[in-house]
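fwd from M.: "can u put these together and see what the complex looks like"

so here's what she sent:
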Amino acid sequence: MNYASFLQLHDELSLLAVIVILLIYDVFAGEKAMRYFQPIAIILVGIHTILNCFPRDPFDVAGGMYQYVPMLTYIKTILNIGTIIVFLQAHKWLNSAESIIRRGEFYFLTLCTLLGMYFMMSAGHFLMFFIGIETASIPMATLVAFNKFNHKSSEAGAKYLLSAVFATGISLFGMSLIYGVSGTLYFADLSTILTGGPLQLLALVFFAIGLFFKISLVPFHLWTPDVYEGAPTSITSYLSVISKGSAVFILFTIFVKVFGNMISDWQSILYGLIVISITLANIFAIRQKNLKRFLAYSSISQAGYIMLAVISGSAVGMSSLVYYVLVYMFSNLAVFGVVQTIENQSGKIQISDYNGLYQTNPKLSVVMMLALFSLAGIPPFAGFFSKFFVFSAAAQQGFYVLLFIALLNTIISLYYYLLVVKAMFLTKSENPIEVVESDNAMKISLVVCTIAIVVIGLFSSIYNQIAVFGFGI
Amino acid sequence: MNFLSIFVLIPLLMMIGLFFAKNRSQINFIAATGSVILLILTGILTYMYLDARAAGDMAEMLFRADTVWYAPFNIHYSVGVDGVSVAMIILTSIIVFTGVFASWRIDPLPKEFFLWFFLLTIGVYGFFISIDLFTMFMYYEIALIPMYLLIGVWGTGAKEYAAMKLTLMLMGGSALLLVGILGIYFLSGAESMNILDIAQKTIPLSAQYYLFPLTFMGFGVLGALFPFHTWSPDGHASAPTAVSMLHAGVLMKLGGYGAFRVAMYLMPEAAHEMAWIFLILTGISVIYGAFSAVVQTDLKYINAYSSVSHCGLVLFAILMMNETAMTGAIMQMLSHGLMTALFFALIGMIYGRTHTRDIRLMGGLMKVLPFLGVSYVIAGLASLGLPGLSGFVAEMTIFVGSFQETDTFHRVLTIVAASSIVITAVYILRVVGKILFGKVQDAHHEELTDATWWERISVVTLIIAIIALGSLPLWISNMIHDSLLPVVANLMR
């Protein structure tokens, strides 16, 4: 591997540079300079995003360990933007008394997980994939336990770590089986070798479980509600959007690139998973009182919808998936932004606390409502378009019954999203949450999310642009 | 800029204007101006349409515009109108105009009310001008969701329950519809989601067998097809006046229009095979709705069930699949839209004064509220089909058309459906006799004041439209009839 090809990894290199700069800054800066730490962090990630948002021609580095396809630029840019929004939303929380001394760690750890996801998504070899997924998981567990004196947060951290380790263990076992049947771990070589023998099927299942855990599909979702509830809200939103988005992307890539000949096998696995994920998550979501647990179940069912794009296994499915991640990111981050604003100020997190929110906080209520409508797939908001495209991708491959089940579930999901809207707009309350003041960073993030929710669907150029690279292979 | 797109653009501009409006008079000014502009544009559109047809333009859809929207899925923003769409746009404009005046004093939050109201309007106009399945479906859903907040916030009675029930049931309908639409697009092998393109293709019969019921039921939910009509009575009873007017007057017509434009037009073979199932269901709608209206005591429930009955007749006539009955169906959409809007407007006005809708607690209102009383009688007479008013023309056409189907099955159903006219007379006359004539039941009712100027505008406009449609139906029925020919031709192939 020569110097020039090393530089081709400039996505990862520039992110690494950002991480190192921030780490050094955090260690050596004095009290006064630390005041500029957060703006600098956001600006650096912003520069990193802009520098790396232009798609290039596909190439391999390190003999195929690292594979680049243009679609990676899109998904990485989406994740970068999501990270910036999470940073903006975390601004106020990080300045609070209990977390101010640890804010450097927050940025460092978050960007480390992002770097891990980069490597994971660009992997052309199972070893690279494994290093990536571990780099993403371990700092994530630390982040979940960020409020270490909070009993729920540390419990959630332990839970996340243990389940992550378990899932990765199973996944590793799958990889060792793959190596056992084929004698190689390069994606490019595997696609012709893996044709669907019983042992290969076993390898597929074991391997995929690790990613299903990350995406939190039923029945690998059991950690999700507890971790979402226990983790600080900024981390929860990061976990639900960025971590999930990258895992879905690499799942699709590996299924198509490596297990391309076993398409009917993994399609039937996904078929079952989608049905139970969407249905169970929706039914559980109805019964939730805590908004963060509610959003956890909502994100599980959303993951099920994203899988509709994966099950199609087509180029249209890939572009629909990336588009879905984009839209889902803005909608979910808007919801989490509002939840976080209110939680920081008043500590209230129950759905019933939101009764009569429109009387006191009309703007926050409207943002929340638009974001929930987008999650529920109501036009003219972006969520309608992204849902329609994943449904189309599935319908194109003839999964009409699956589509029908998924659509019936959208009714249930609309019901529970409307429960929150109902609490905010319809239910009158004697003592609604008092007027909440959000800081400028949060305001910017909410405005960006809201504009994105309204605009992305109506301006088709974004989807058309993503679709240009369809598969990128 | 395409002329038709202006119908979507104006409500959008009004919403932006409303967003910046400061007080009630500004809000009312924007709403009134916008709805007048829409009404005038509708007049221009009608004139242009008739003019183009008279000049011999025989294209299936006029004023076409077509822009590629989502290229990977061949989704186009594609608009165009035929006589049926023009008729529906006329109806919408009249009802939006009168609805604005009926909610002149809406309370609380007038700004938010009109914002949602005009979002609903965008959905309705957009649906009627679209000829692309995707945009059609999108506008259909845009029209659904404002209902939740409009009923939930501004409604009366068990509003939260009614709003949730209505939204979820209609969403269920659109879930069926989406499967249907995707199936139609992918299985027809058409190059775009444009209805006119798909109509040129033949969808495999095996696929039609499940796509036709999905699409027909999907639209049928909104058209109050038995047994999916149950959202309608609760929803209409709880909704605020203008929303009941728009919903019963126009939104329920989306169901009939869609069933006709998508289900019947694109899947004629299955329509022939499966019409009998839906004919029975619509027959039940017609009779069941009418009988239910007889026993209700709440004015809005009576009218809501009567809507179920009348809208059932629309679907019933569409399924007869001949020109006359289908023309009657579209006429019935117009006529029922105007009538029911008038009813709901009057009921809202009466309720605003008496604070009750229970017919047992009212009486002798003709003496206290002569204007509203007389208008109510006119609406009632139109509803039970008095010649010269719109109801007669529509129902007459439907039954004449239905009787052309000579086999026993159709004959029996026609006779059963026609008997609903008698039942209609029962519940209309019962209500009129009970609340308008006789002794005044409540001493407080003696002091009530008659309609205000904005209420009079709303009521008079609707009455004029009903009389116009009843006395001079020929131009509009010819316009509709000519536009039905391609659909009927497709059904005959």
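replying to her w this: Residues 6-492 of chain B form one domain.
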